[in-house]
Design goal:
A hairpin with a 4-residue loop joins strand 3 (90-91) and strand 4 (96-101). This protein has 9 helices and 8 strands. The protein has a domain at 18-155 and 187-214 and 263-273: Vaccinia Virus protein VP39 (Rossmann fold, 3-Layer(aba) Sandwich), CATH 3.40.50.150. The protein has an 8-stranded mixed sheet, sandwiched between helices. It has 280 residues and is an alpha/beta fold.
Amino acid sequence: MADHGADDGYLLDNQQAEAGIRFGALAELFDPVTFRHIDRLGIAQGMRCWEIGAGGPTVPLGLAARVGPDGAVVATDIDTSWTESALGTGTGTGGTIEVLRHDVAADPPPPGGFDLVHARLVLVHVTDRAEALRRMVGALRPGGLLLVEDADPGLQPLLCPDESGPEQRLANRLRSGFRELMASRGADLAYGRTLPRLLREAGLDDVRADAYFPITSPACTVLEAATVRQIRARLVAAGLATDQDIDRHLANVATGRLDLATAPMISAWGRRPLLHADRT
């Protein structure tokens, strides 16, 4: 799901078994939002798209279906194991999908220029996110579109916004520990809200943004259980929770009676200006 430095202590390692569960839950939660924006932006037959931090296969496949046999999708990530196992390198339902191992903040963009560059829940985890964004903008063709979707845990930090009892208070305490671990590894917990300004400062036109966060989706329950299992050892090692706390929380989550939320995902988009000759 995310590009990050060679060893920045990223909490949600793609190599862990829970990663595939998380990718599925994230797709269920956020693919409708992502593709609502992509369809509104007019991604069409014959276009060339760069999907950054691809993780699971659903967004590359959806893009390939939209760009058709004359288009192409380049799907990149620091760890492409999940994407490769699901897609390989070849033709999706529509356009060609090429999977590449790539660090968005350190490696040159894939060559050729793109009509769409998209990253979801990636840059918040990238230490040099300013450089990553610069490279993403630079990869756009004139008139090309950039869509960046990232979390802003600072805007809504609670796992259970309705903190009505001890189960909800425990959930929120563990979520606070998760955020502390993220921040200690360079994540910017207020990054999402800055995206409209950053896209304008990067020289993009027609910048717009909106935000979305679900509450009480079954996918929120699946996502929380998988996430806590991934970070369990680090929460305990940092003294942020005990094994007993985590066992109790996972049992509470499994009941399906907690109204679990995510941090807001802010989607921001803009267009690279046309060259002067193209405007006339």
